[in-house]
Amino acid sequence: MAEVLVSLFGAIGTIVASYYAYQGHKQGKRSSTAINEINDAVNHRHENGTPRLYDMVWSNFNRVSKLERSVKDIQLDVKRLAGEVREHDQEITKIEKEINHG
User: How far apart are CA 55 and CA 61, in angstroms?
Assistant: First the structure.
């Protein structure tokens, strides 16, 4: 009887270990697929594939840098034009006073 129980527990242990080994192998395949997809995205391993992730990031960085410079240039232009508008406003006020009093 004891020999039967030992064999039964051994068989159950083998089944459980086999199940977990199968699940581990299955998860390993999924992980391998995900890793290959990430590698493709980062390293652009195929000729007709999408651009490399690094290239896309660098391109976006350059575009943002150009936009920031453009915004700064526009802000300087606005300040300069605001100064000119104030000068013109003062000149107009001066001319209006001369017209009204003169």
Answer: 10
pLDDT in tens, 82-92: 999 999 999 99
Helix (H, G, I), strand (E, B) or coil at 60: helix
Q: Taking a C-beta distance cutoff of 8 angstroms, is the pair 43, 55 a contact?
A: no
Overall number of domains in the chain: 2
Domain that holds residue 88: 52-102
| Closest by CA position to 40, among listed 57, 53, 58, 30 | 53
Tokens 């017209």 locate to: 99
d(CA 40, CA 47): 11
